[in-house]
Amino acid sequence: MSDRELKAGELRARIDRLPIRPYPVSWMVIIGLGYFFAFYDILILSFSFVSPMVTQLRLSRLNLSEIASASLIGYIIGAYFVSTVSDYFGRRWGLITNAILIAIGSIGCALAGNFYVLITSRFIAGMGIGAEIAVINTYISEITPAGIRGKMVQLTYLAGALGFAVTPFIALALIPLSPVGWRWMFGISAVVAFTVFPLRTLLPESPRWLVIRGRFNEAEAVVKRLEEYVARKIGTLPPTPAPLPENFLKKFPTAELFNRQYLPRLIMAIAFWFFDYMLAYGVIGFAPYILIPAGFTFTSATWYIALGSIGYIVGALSMAPLADRWERKYLVASAFSIATLAVFLYALAVYLLSPVVLTIGAFLGAFATAFAVPAYTYTAELFPTRARATGFALADGIGHLGGAVVPFLIYLVFDPAKPVTTGIYTFVMLGIFEIIATAIVLTGPRTTKLRLEEISK
């Protein structure tokens, strides 16, 4: 290795030797708030679809599918462009940009007076959310030692789990009580986004990104800060492992991914996300839309989903101690299998009109969503530092085409005039998509407890 490569390898190795979390909880809260409003924003749309918003803005069934897809198209575009900016200008600027986009989009939704303003605002908010998830996972992966990388991503996700868990209760409180309750729900998202924006300016830049850009003095300062935090907790630091080489950025980040090492990984990740998001956005976006015509009232459907959403918290806490003990792809496959069972229980709940079965299905679905967070860690690990945010964004972003397609499939399969039969068909279809996602993720490489430079040079 050259002197430059040796210095870079030493800085990265000094991070990986740290045996405990090398940053304060406040960093996790600032980052985790992003998860909160990302997942809160994703879920509120489904409740808006069964609110007075539909009649107030004169939305057709096709309009609802178009709005859901616009969010996801924005997600794909935002994930790619903001993540590419993050690979060029730094992770912190990516995190700041995301918060601004979500705030603007959410305000637009809250004030929307017609279909066109609403769909444009959803597109803008989607851009921020897509980039948010990509950059958060990249940032956490790069500032966390290899041995606890999965656990720290999982614990950061707890804020997102809270977002998923509280949203049905907020919908239950606001939508039945006020004809503009749906506007207040979007307004909450804007307030959280504006709160996060100034806080993110306090975060340091990723030292791994600084190294790749040749900014060694700045990287040294951040690594020293991480080491001092750990030293205050445990005293003497363990020895530094041998440095591992990693190539510097030499061309456009996307071009770094189109070779024999990374292209198969990219295709695999796109494929499993594509089919997983068909299930996720089919349920998140349209469960109340299917359940209410099938015989559940708005209040009962929302209440049972809200009870089940406690599974988000249980799933997130259950995965934390396992995230770095079992091979990552097997953890993801187990979570996808639970999600498949959950959506089949949704189908059974429609057939039986059973609140008990619906609550169990909602709980298992929520549990599986939080239990599947290692899929985010896994995706970030597949790509090199010089193109990690871009690789994650392409995999997760293009994978969201599955979420963009599924509203139109539901539009074709689900018939409100035959809600029970076609509702069952719809949920079973979504379960089949998740079975495919499970099979695909098992084909990926191993990553657990490996240093990022061992996985991707």
What do you see in this structure?
It contains 21 helices and no strands. The chain is an all-alpha fold. The protein has one domain (3-240, 256-455): MFS general substrate transporter like domains (Growth Hormone, Chain: A, Up-down Bundle), CATH 1.20.1250.20. α5 (91-111) runs antiparallel to α9 (181-200) and α12 runs parallel beside α15.
Query: Total number of helical segments?
Result: 21
- The average pLDDT is 87
* Strands, total number: 0
Low-pLDDT segments: none
CATH first level: which class?
Mainly Alpha
Whole-angstrom Rg: 22 Å
Number of domains: 1
Q: Would you identify the CATH H-level superfamily?
A: MFS general substrate transporter like domains
Order of helices and strands: HHHHHHHHHHHHHHHHHHHHH
The end-to-end distance, rounded to whole angstroms, is 13 Å
Query: The CATH topology is what?
Result: Growth Hormone, Chain: A
SSE layout and pairing:
Layout: H1 3-16, H2 25-48, H3 53-56, H4 61-89, H5 91-111, H6 115-143, H7 149-156, H8 158-174, H9 181-200, H10 207-212, H11 216-234, H12 263-291, H13 298-308, H14 310-319, H15 328-352, H16 355-371, H17 374-381, H18 388-399, H19 401-413, H20 419-441, H21 452-455
Features:
single chain, 457 residues, mainly alpha, Growth Hormone, Chain: A, 21 helices, 0% strand
Q: Can you describe this structure in just a few lines?
A:
The protein has helices spanning 3-16, 25-48, 53-56, 61-89, 91-111, 115-143, 149-156, 158-174, 181-200, 207-212, 216-234, 263-291, 298-308, 310-319, 328-352, 355-371, 374-381, 388-399, 401-413, 419-441, 452-455.
